[in-house]
Every structure is written in C-alpha cells, then in structure tokens.
Amino acid sequence: MPQGRRFRTEGRRGVVNAEHSVHGGAAAGAAGTGFGRARAVLWLVAAVLAVRQAAAVLRQPPGERLTDLGTWIGDNGVLHVTGSLYDTGQFTGTPFAGLVLKPLARSAERSLGIAWTFGTLLLVVALGLVVARALPGRVSRRTGLLAAPVAISLLMLSLPVRNSFYLGQTSIIPVLLVLLGCFVVRGERSSGVLIGIGAALQPAVLLFAPLLWLTGRKKAAVTTAGTFGGATALAWAAMPADSWTYWVHHVAGAGLGERPDNLANQSLHGALLRIGLEGPLEVALFVVLAAVVIALGLRRAVRYARDGQLLLAVALTGCVAVAVSPTAWQHQLLWILLALVGRVGTRAGDRLVWPAVVVLLMTLPGKMMLPNMAPLHPIRENVPLIAALAAACAVPFLTRTSPYFERPVPTEYARPVPARWSRVPLAPFWRRLLSRPNLLLELLVIRVGYSAYSHIRLAATGGRTAAEEHGRQIISIERALGIDIEHWVNHAVVNAKWAESFFNFYYTSFHFVVPLSILAVLYVRRPADYRWARSSLGFATVLALIGFWFYPLAPPRLMPGLGFIDTVHGPQDLANPDYGAMTAVTNQYAAMPSLHFGWSLWCGVVIVILAPKLWMKLLGLLHPLFTVCAIVATANHWVLDAVGGAAVVGTGFALTYVLAGRRELLPELRSSGDGVRAETLAEADPFPEGKRATGGESVPAG
After folding, report:
1. Is 155 helix (H, G, I), strand (E, B) or coil?
2. 301, 380, 421, 438: most buried, per Cβ within 10 A?
3. pLDDT for 531-568, tens place per residue?
4. 3-state secondary structure of 492
C-alpha cells in the first residue's frame, strides 16, 4: 500500500474506531445503569465547569473582563482606529487576523462580550468532541463514552482556556482548525484549506505543512502552504503598510505586545532572554536550538503519525510550534495538553503518570509546581516550555506495534488481610500495591498538596476578634482541667537560655525534615508501607485544614495582656493587626489543631510500628515529646492544640484503616530490605494471569 494511502487509512481508522466507541457504544452504555450514571455525572461536571467559566467572565465589570478585546473594541482598538493595526502597540495578531476577525470583535462590542464568551465556550466544546473522536488505537467502549466529557472538563480547567476566556483571545481557533482538518473534513484539499487558515491566523501552525508532506499527504501540505500564502497575500493587498510592519519590521510579529522576556512568553526565545542573553548571540542560539527542536520534534511526530497515532503527532507538532515561536503566550499552549494522549510506560501502574503530570502542569501555575528557591527559578519560570520540549523531543511514547501498548505489565497487589469488622474496607477498590509509586508524580503531588495546604491555611484567617475570643475559651477549658501550664513553661524556658535556644532550634528545624525523611526511607525500603503512611498523613493534614478554617485561634504569644514571650519571632506589637514579617507568609491564627505536634506524633507512631529495633522505637518517641515541649515553651501553641493535633492524626490513621483495611501484609509478603521478594509476587496477586475483577467480569489488568 502506498505510504500516503496507508497513513490516511490508519488515521481514518483511528477516527472511525473512536467515533464508533463514542456513538455506537451509547446503547450498550444505557444497558449498564451504573456506567450510564457515571457518564451522566461526567457530562454534568463538564456543564458545571463550562457555566462556571462563563460566569467568571461575565460577572466582571465590562471594563475589567475580556481585557485583550480592548485591542479590538476599545477607544483605540482596531475597529475605531483608521491608521495602522499596530499603532497602539497592543494588537499582536497577523494582518490577516485583523482583516477577518473584525466582525467577531464587532459582535463582542455590541453585546459587551456575552456573544464572544459563549462563542468561545462553543469552540472549547467542539474542540473536546473532536479530541474524543480522534483518540489513537483501539478505544474501548467505556473510554469512548467517557472521553468527550473528560476532554471538555480538562479543557475548561486548563490555564490556556481560562486565559483565553479571561482575555478574550482567539487562540483556540487555530487549534480547532488544525484538528478539524486532520480528523473531521474529507479530502486533502479541504484539510489543507483549514490548516492553512489556521497558519494565517497563527504563523507557527505552518509547521503542520511539513508534517503532512512527510506523512504522504502531499496535496494537503501544498494546499496548506497555498492557503497560507493566499490569505497572507490578501492581507498584503488590503493592508500593505500593516503587513510590512508585521512581517518585515517585526519579523513575523516578534516584539509586538508584551516584552518578549515576560514570564508569560513560554518559548525558547523568551527563556533565553530571561537568563540574560541578548543581541546577536541570543538570536543565533535561538535559531540553532529552534532548528534542532524542529528536526527532532517533526521526526518523532512523523513516526507516531505513521504508527496510527495522528492525534499524538498533531500534539507534538504543536509543542514544537510553541517552543520555536518568537512568542508563545499562555493562551497559545493548548498543544501541550493534547500531548497527554500519548502512552508512556510498560507497566499498568505507570500509565497514568504522564497524563497526570501534564494535567497538573497545565491547570496549576508554575509557583505551585516548585518551591520559591533561587536555584529552581529557571525551571519554575519555564515549566510549560520544559513540558513542550519534553513532549516534542524526549518523552518515550509507545508505538502501537509495542506489545505493551494495549497490554501493559499488570500491577501486582497484595492479598488483603482480613479486618476485624466485616464492612472494612469500605473502599474495596483501594487495593494494596506492592510496587513503589512513580517518584516524579509523588514529588509533584506532595509539592502541589503542600502548596494548596499553604494557600488554604493562609486564607483561613477568621479575624482577630474571633481568634482572641477562641483563645479565651481555650484558657477557660485548660484552667478547668488544671492543665494551663503554658505561662509557667514559657517563662521557665526564657530564664534558662540553653533551653530557650534548644527549643527555638527544635521548633524551627524539624517540622518538615523528619516527616519527609521518614517518607523517603519508606519509599526506598518499604514501598507498601509508604503508601499507607502517606495516606494517613494526608488525611490528618486535610482534617487540620478544616480546624484552621472553622476555629481560628490566637496562640499564647498573640494574646494581649497575658505576658507571654515570643521566643522564636521576637516581641510583637499587639496593637498592630500585622505581627511582623511572618504574617505575610503564614496564618498566625492556624493554631488548632497543632500540626507541629500532629506531624511529629505521626512520625513517632510510624517509627514505633515499623522500626525493627527497640532503640529505634524509643528514639522515635522522643520527637513528639520534644515537639510538644517546644510548641508550649515558645508560646506558639496551647496544650489543647497538641490534643487537637493528636486527634486529627488518630483520625487519619483510622480513616486509612476504614477505607483500605489493615496495614499488615501476609507473612510471606513482608519487605526484605529493598522491597517485596520477587518470588512471592505471583502468590500475592489474586489474579495471577493479569486479570482484575471489575463488576462481575474479568478484564485485562491494563
């Protein structure tokens, strides 16, 4: 079969299979009421996200929403300026975009952005439907039925789409035109026309022409180039001065709009400028790097297109376009999200790692991915660019000819140990994995989880009046119980300088180090126990956030008139609502429960349960003992705060037990140094032939 025909056959086959799964599987999905409900819930979620996104835009005052539409409909916008498109320095699109998008901008002007917002909403829905139809490979019935609402939901949550809604940008249109040209329209000429129009709106899309040519669709490639040339020529004829400004003076728009070294410019050019390069050296290096990325990225895209994974090939080409464009703003990064369709990893347990990483990177800001540390700033500032480069040039996506593409190595599970109560575990699908979780995903989840915890903790202020009132409640309870020892301990430690120095150091140094060290040791030595310990710690932390939110509490050091001495932060001006520099980075009233003590108690419990020697267990108990002394001695917590910390940790362990069952493995499956013995894995798997129980049927573990 000729190469071009084989490519078209494979590409159409993937579309037909996906379409059959989406539409033809609807009747089968209706038969399974449980699965039908799940599908309905996913569509409901997609609808809620869509409505929420539209409402977030429309509830803003007219002057504050769709801010980039000001370049069109403002007093100095394209619609009202008789001179050049680029006189104001705000419009950054191609002259062809200025020519053909004026009617859309005029509709937005007349309706104060309502038509524009709902038009963008429809574009996103159409994009999600096309992506669902274009999934590569043999798509199962369930995957096909769920693909469309999941795709639309992910698009609605992604930063590029949210940015497009907020600014009133049109960057979704070129992406949709390319996908329509590759997966929906019939005939290579029609495909080329759509992609060519997309390139006329966003020049980097022209990179799809060589992809089409190298995969045998030469008519489509020629039509793409011809349509781009014709549209650009039309704009030259209608607006010669503007075309000269864009294509010649600014070299395809480079330098228009925001400064190219702005953090929002996630291209190689922007990254090089941010690290301090400029002038001819920067331009030369950018050209060389862009050429390398184009060569590697298009080669990989052609490989996956010939393999029948056309959607992945399109995504990789888009990632190349993001990297090599002079400017690639946030609303132009949708291609990176599309790259999650690639399959990475030979084990079933690793299959979700790449999609999860892409979703996290494309839905959360870079500051949530990495801590604010100077050595990490070059990575933190270029997270989307790094993701685009990795997808285009490095990530080892599986080909459909790989034996692991459809049937990855099944996940090994431990045989469950009977619990004391018949209804435990309440979540039987929460099965004990024997292998280590993916390290990259674990680090990302821990970082994102801690960042979310910090934001929620900082937001749960509650107000000074309520916090001090709760402080007086705590004092009353402790006096009634006879445990109001904070003032005596605080002043006793202040009078013993060695004790003050020791407890100050302990309070500020071991809060994060010890829990992270324990998790690291368990990850390496006891992977099954790592999952159990991590889950219990996560539950305890979430419960603590609830306490911070509903019960803001002033610690002893911030209670006026009681004479406490803040040994860690120094004297505080209690007449000032801001108590020093710490107020800017943490919530001063997040005292109940005390996670300083709670996390230390978690450390002690884990060490006592898992440590093999008695001296290790005793040493582990010293950490919560020293911590409770430190939080009271430094006037940062009440005694009852420690009780609250113990309560959330105990509840965290209890929830893990109730949901997942007992921690213990069967005797023959216990860890032996660096994990579980290989010879026992087959015995541990209740489905030794790679089968899992799902509903009442057996399906492949992958």
Report:
1. helix
2. 301
3. 889 999 999 999 998 988 888 888 898 888 888 888 88
4. helix
d(CA 354, CA 368): 18
DSSP 380-418: HTTHHHHHHHHHHHT--PPPTTSTTTTSPBPPPBPPPPP
Torsion over CA: 496, 498, 501, 506 (sign): negative
The per-residue pLDDT for 594 is 92
pLDDT tens digits, one per residue of 80-111: 555 666 766 667 778 888 777 666 665 555 55
Q: What tokens were used for 415? A: 């045989």
| pLDDT tens for each residue of 303-343 | 999 998 999 999 999 999 999 998 888 888 999 999 999 99
Would you list the DSSP string of 4-66? HHHHHHHHHHHHHHHHIIIIITHHHHHHSHHHHHHHHHHHHHHHHHHHHHHHHHHTS-TTTSS
What residues form DSSP beta bridges with 413? Answer: 433
| Percentage of residues of the chain with pLDDT beyond 90 | 35
- pTM reported for the whole predicted model: 0.78
- Per-residue pLDDT reduced to its tens digit, 634-692: 988 999 999 999 999 999 999 998 888 887 765 544 444 344 443 333 333 333 333 33
Percent of the chain with pLDDT over 70: 79
Q: Are 444 and 360 in contact (CB under 8 A)?
A: yes
Task: Of 150, 166, 198, give the one whose Cα is nearest residue 43.
Answer: 150
Please name which of 212, 395, 402, 199 lies closest in space to residue 302, comparing C-alpha atoms: 212
Contact of 92 with 253, CB cutoff 8 Å? yes
SS3 700: strand
What stretch of H or E contains 507? helix 497-509
| Integer Cα distance of 203 and 226 in angstroms | 13
d(CA 462, CA 552): 6
Determine what percent of the chain falls in helix, strand and coil, rounding each to the nearest 5.
65, 0, 30
Provide Rg for the chain, Cα atoms. 30
The rounded distance, in Å, linking the Cα atoms of 460 and 587 is 7
* Residue 106 host element (H or E): helix 102-110
List of residues 6+ apart from 120 with CB closer than 8 A: 164, 165, 168, 172
On whether the CB atoms of residues 228 and 81 are closer than 8 A, the answer is no
What does the alpha-carbon distance between residue 177 and residue 93 come to, in Å, rounded to a whole number? 17
The tokens for 356 are: 């999860």
Q: What are the residues facing 692 on neighbouring strands? A: 699
User: Cα angle vertex 399, ends 393, 404, to 5°?
Assistant: 120
The C-alpha atoms of residue 638 and residue 469 are separated, in whole angstroms, by: 14
CA distances from 111 to 62, 116, 441 (A): 10, 8, 45
Q: Which residue, 332, 320, 126, is CA-closest to 206?
A: 320
